[in-house]
Design a protein that fits this description.
By secondary structure, the protein is α+β, with helices and mostly antiparallel strands. The chain has three domains: 31-304, Beta-galactosidase, Chain A, domain 5, CATH 2.70.98; 313-342 and 549-591 and 617-798, no CATH class; 375-544, Alpha/alpha barrel (Glycosyltransferase), CATH 1.50.10.10. Bound molecules: beta-D-glucopyranose.
C-alpha cells in the first residue's frame, strides 16, 4: 500500500489513502494538530506502529549538559530539549483478544484526512484480524483552538461481523520509549525517561498523572475523561501506575453495532505552582471540556477557523497544488501561534522535536510577518514572550561584555542554547530581527500600549547592544565586526550588509520610539545623548560595496573569496554542512541561504533597482539553498527583478517543503519558516507588498502559470482585500473607514464600499533567467503536468 506521494491534492485539506509504514514519521508531522500550547503528532490512535511518538507542551523541556571538547569563556553550559510529555491520545483496541495493529491481519481500507476549515484529523480503517474478525474503526481528533488546555478524540469501533468481543483501552502514558536518533545535527537529542512520577489517580471514567522533569523542575499534569456509549452492556475499569493510567471499556458487539468513546484530554504545566494547583487546573479543564461536549468542541473549532479563513485566506487560481500547499502553510502557522501565549514559537512549531524544539530568528523574520496581518494578538503574545526573557538577555550581554540585551540564537526558555558560537552567539542579527518584528507589529496595529509597556524596552535594549558591539572608525563610519549574518556558510565576518542594515533600522526605531514615549524612555535611563548616539551610528552605518563588480559583498571581502567548486560537488554531497568542514565553507563564496538577498527584501529602500538586479544575479550563482529559509526570499526578489517564472518555482518550493518532503526531514517536524515563507513569497513576491514605510505599498504582478491571486490583510481596524489578475488589481476595504496605500508608487485612498481598480503591471522580463549552481536549480513549476487531484472525503461524523 505504499505510494510514493501519499497525499492527494485538495484545495482545503490533506488526504492520505492507504497506509505507508515507511512514511509514518513524515505523515505524523503533516497531520500534527496544535494550538500553540499543546502539540500532538499525527500518531495512530493505537500508538503503534509509529515513526516518532510525540506530544508536546510549549515551554516544557529538560536540561541537558552541553559538553565541549575544548571549552571557552561564555560557552553555554546547558542545553534545553523539548520532551515528549505524557501521551494522552492513546486508544488501544483488542478484537477478540487480538490487538488492532495495521502490521498484522488485513488492512482492507485506511484513510486519514485533515480539513483546514474544521481543524479535525479524521481516520477510517477497516481491518480483519489474523483470526478473521473484521471491524471498522473511525476516529476524529482535535486540539482545541478555543479551550487552550484541551484536546479530544471521538473513537468508534463497529463490528462488521460478529458477535465480537471488543476491549478499548484509553490511556495516559509517560516516558514512552523513543526511537534512537540518526545523528543528523538538525534532529533532537533523545532523552531517556525525563519524567519523574509525582501523582497518579484513576477512578470511574477519569484519570490524572502528574510528573516532574528531573533537572528543569517543571511539573506536568495530564488528565483524561470519557463518555462511553455502546448498544448493550459495557463494563469499565480504571487503573493507574507511575507512568500509566488506563480506562478500559469492554463489550460484545453484534454485526453492525458500534461502541463510541469520546476522550477528553487536558494538560497543564508550571515551573512554580504546587502539585494540587496543577492537578486542579487539569481537572477543571476536563470538566469544562466535558461540559462543552464533543459536538460543542467541534462547533467552536469550526467557528474559530471559519473566522480565520474568512479574514485570512490566500486564494490562488491556476495551480491547485499550490493552493493546497499555501492553505496547509497558513493552517500550520496558525496552529503554531494561535494560543502560544507568552511562549516561544519553535522552528518546528509543536509538530516534532527537530532542532530540539528551539526557537530561532525564524519566528520574528518569517512567522510573525505573516501573523501580524492575520492574527496580530498572537504576535503581541510572541513578542511579550521575548520581553519576559529580557533579564536573561541582559545577563548574556553583560557576560559578553556588551551593553543592553543579547537575545539567544536558539532557546526554549530564554537562555542561549547554541553550543556552536560562530553560528550561534555571533548571529547578533537576532536582536534586530526582534526589533523589526516589534516595529512592524506596532505599525500594523497602532498598539501604543504595547509599545509603551514592551516594545520600547525591546528596541532600547537591542539598540544599546548594537551601539556597544559596533564602533566608529577613523573615518567616522560605524562598523559592526565579527558577526554572522543569516547565511550559515559564512561566519564571523565584518560588516555583514544584512546585519548592518537591520541594526541601522533598529537604532533609528529605538530613537523614534524613545521620542514618542519620553517618560517611559527616561525611566529606562535613555537621555537625549544616548538617542543621539543611536541616530549617529545609524546615519554613519557602513555598507560595503564592491565597485569593481558593481555588487554588494555579503560582508567585507566576500566577493574576493575563492569560489566554491560547484562543478566538482556531486548532488549527494548536499546539504554541504553534512559533507564538508565549516572551515572550508566559511572561506569560500558559497551561500547556504538568502542573506544579501534578504537584505534587499527587508531593507529594499537601501538599494537601487539596478543594484537589486545585479546583486540578485550574482548571489543566485552562489546560493545552494541548504536551508529551507531561502527559497521564499529568493522568490520575493526574483519577482521584484521581473523573473516571475523563477519566483513561481521558488514559491512552490517553499510551499511544498513539507507536503512533498523536499528536504527529506519532515519527519522531525514541519518547517514553520518555510511555510510562513510561502505566504510571504505570494504576498510580498507577487503581491509586491513592502511594509517598511508608514503606508503599505504594493507592486502586483503574476507569473504566467497563475490566473489570480487574492489575499487580505488586517491593518489596525481595517481589513484590506487585494485581488490580482493579469489585467487588474482591485483593492477593497472589507472593514474600516479609509486606508491610504501605495500602488506602483501611486498614493491611493481605499474606502469601504468603493473598491479601487488599477492595471496590473507586466514587468520587463530580463533577457536571461538567473543561473543557480549546477544541480541546485529549483524544480520548474510552469506548465507542470500530471498533478494528481483528489478531494477530502468526509468520513461519517458520528
Ligand atoms: C538555518 C537557520 C535557521 C535554523 C532553524 C538553519 O538551518 O540556517 O537560519 O534559523 O535552521 O530553522
Amino acid at each position: 500500500m505504499t505510494t510514493p506521494d501519499p497525499f492527494a491534492v485538495d484545495p482545503w485539506g490533506v488526504v492520505e489513502h492507504g497506509f505507508d509504514l515507511a512514511g509514518q514519521a513524515r505523515a505524523e508531522s503533516v497531520f500534527a494538530l496544535s494550538n500553540g500550547h499543546i502539540g500532538l503528532r499525527g500518531n495512530l490512535d493505537e500508538g503503534e506502529p509509529h515513526g516518532l511518538p510525540g506530544t508536546y507542551l510549549n515551554g516544557v523541556f529538560e536540561l541537558r549538559p552541553l559538553p565541549y571538547a575544548e571549552s571557552g569563556y561564555g560557552f553555554p553550559e546547558s542545553g534545553q530539549s523539548v520532551i515528549n510529555v505524557t501521551n494522552g491520545k492513546l486508544i488501544r483496541l483488542l478484537v477478540d483478544d487480538e490487538p488492532f495493529d495495521l502490521r498484522y491481519g488485513e488492512v482492507r481500507g485506511h484513510q486519514r484526512s485533515l480539513d483546514f476549515r474544521e481543524g479535525l484529523l479524521r481516520r477510517s480503517a477497516e481491518w480483519t484480524s489474523p483470526a478473521g474478525r473484521t471491524v471498522r474503526v473511525t476516529s476524529q481528533r482535535m486540539v482545541s483552538l478555543t479551550q487552550r488546555a484541551v484536546a479530544a478524540v471521538e473513537y468508534t469501533v463497529e463490528a462488521v461481523d460478529g458477535p465480537v468481543r471488543i476491549v478499548v483501552q484509553s490511556e495516559l502514558v509517560a516516558n514512552e520509549q523513543l526511537p534512537l536518533g540518526d545523528g543528523d545535527p538538525r534532529a533532537a537529542a533523545v532523552l531517556e525517561a525525563p519524567l519523574a512520577a509525582e501523582l497518579r489517580h484513576a477512578a470511574g471514567s477519569k484519570a490524572v498523572l502528574v510528573h516532574r522533569t528531573r533537572f528543569s523542575g517543571l511539573r506536568v499534569a495530564a488528565g483524561i475523561d470519557h463518555v462511553i456509549e455502546g448498544p448493550g452492556r459495557v463494563d469499565t475499569t480504571a487503573e493507574s501506575s507511575e507512568d500509566q493510567a488506563r480506562i478500559t471499556a469492554t463489550t460484545v458487539l453484534k454485526a453492525g453495532e458500534r461502541l463510541r468513546l469520546v476522550k477528553f484530554i487536558a494538560y497543564g504545566w508550571s515551573a512554580t505552582r504546587s502539585l494540587p494547583a496543577v492537578r486542579d487546573q487539569v481537572e477543571a479543564a476536563l470538566t469544562a471540556a466535558r461540559y462543552t461536549g464533543w459536538d460543542g468542541l467541534v462547533d467552536e473549532q469550526k467557528e474559530y477557523l471559519g473566522r480565520f479563513w474568512s479574514d485570512s485566506d490566500i486564494e490562488i487560481e491556476g495551480d491547485v497544488e499550490l493552493q493546497q500547499a499555501v492553505r496547509f502553510a497558513l493552517f500550520h502557522v496558525l496552529q503554531a501561534g494561535a494560543r502560544s501565549e507568552e511562549r516561544a514559537i519553535p522552528a518546528k512549531g509543536l509538530t516534532g522535536p527537530g532542532y530540539d524544539g528551539h526557537s530561532f530568528w525564524d519566528t520574528e523574520t518569517f512567522v510573525l510577518p505573516v501573523l501580524t496581518y492575520c492574527l496580530p494578538a498572537a504576535v503581541n503574545q510572541a513578542l511579550r514572550w521575548r520581553h519576559t526573557t529580557l533579564p536573561m538577555a541582559r545577563d548574556r550581554a553583560a557576560q559578553l561584555g556588551l551593553a543592553g540585551a543579547v537575545f539567544p540564537w536558539r532557546t526554549i526558555r530564554g537562555e542561549e542554547c547554541s553550543g556552536y558560537w560562530p553560528a550561534g552567539t555571533a548571529a547578533f542579527h537576532i536582536g534586530a530581527d526582534i526589533a523589526a518584528a516589534v516595529v512592524r507589529y506596532i505599525r500594523a496595529t497602532g498598539d501604543l500600549e504595547f509599545e509603551r509597556a514592551y516594545g520600547l524596552e525591546l528596541l532600547v535594549e537591542t539598540a544599546r547592544m548594537w551601539r556597544s558591539l559596533g564602533h566608529h572608525d577613523a573615518h567616522g563610519r560605524f562598523r559592526i565586526e565579527g558577526v554572522t549574518g543569516p547565511d550559515e556558510y559564512s561566519a564571523v565576518a565584518d560588516n555583514n550588509v544584512f546585519t548592518n542594515l537591520m541594526a541601522q533600522s533598529n537604532l533609528r526605531s529605538a530613537a523614534e520610539s524613545a521620542t514618542r514615549h519620553q517618560f517611559e524612555a527616561a525611566a529606562l535611563g535613555v537621555d537625549t545623548e544616548e538617542a543621539a548616539a543611536w541616530r549617529d551610528a545609524a546615519d554613519k552605518m557602513f555598507i560595503p560595496y564592491d565597485e569593481k563588480l558593481g555588487v554588494h559583498p555579503q560582508a567585507d571581502g566576500f566577493t574576493d573569496h575563492q569560489l566554491w567548486d560547484f562543478e566538482g560537488t556531486p548532488p549527494e554531497k548536499y546539504p554541504l554542512l553534512l559533507h564538508y568542514p565549516y572551515f572550508d565553507l566559511y572561506r569560500k563564496q558559497v551561500v547556504k541561504q538568502a542573506d544579501l538577498v534578504l537584505a534587499m527584501q527587508v531593507r529594499g529602500d537601501a538599494f537601487t533597482q539596478e543594484q537589486k538586479v545585479r546583486n540578485f544575479n550574482y548571489y543566485e550563482r552562489l546560493t545552494v539553498r541548504d536551508s529551507s529559509l531561502s527559497a521564499c526570499t529568493q522568490a520575493v526578489i526574483a519577482a521584484e527583478v521581473g523573473q516571475l517564472d523563477l519566483a513561481y518555482d521558488y514559491t512552490a518550493e517553499a510551499a511544498l517543503m513539507d507536503l512533498r518532503d523536499l528536504g527529506g526531514n519532515t519527519r522531525d517536524g514541519l518547517h514553520m519558516a518555510s511555510l510562513a515563507g510561502a505566504c510571504i513569497a505570494l504576498v510580498a513576491g507577487f503581491g509586491g507588498l513592502r511594509d517598511h514605510d508608514e503606508h503599505l505599498s504594493f507592486r502586483p504582478r503574476l507569473p504566467s502559470g497563475l490566473q489570480r491571486l487574492a489575499f487580505s490583510m488586517a491593518v489596525r481596524e481595517h481589513l484590506l482585500r487585494i485581488d490580482i489578475t493579469h489585467a487588474t488589481t482591485t483593492y477593497t476595504l472589507l472593514r474600516g473607514g479609509v486606508l491610504p496605500i501605495l500602488h506602483e508608487g501611486e498614493s491611493l485612498r481605499v474606502e469601504k464600499g468603493r473598491p479601487v481598480v488599477r492595471p496590473t503591471q507586466t514587468p520587463q522580463t530580463p533577457a536571461e533567467r538567473a543561473v543557480q549552481p549546477p544541480g541546485r536549480e529549483p524544480a520548474r513549476r510552469h506548465g507542470q503536468a500530471g498533478v494528481q487531484v483528489g478531494t477530502v472525503d468526509h468520513l461519517p461524523a458520528e
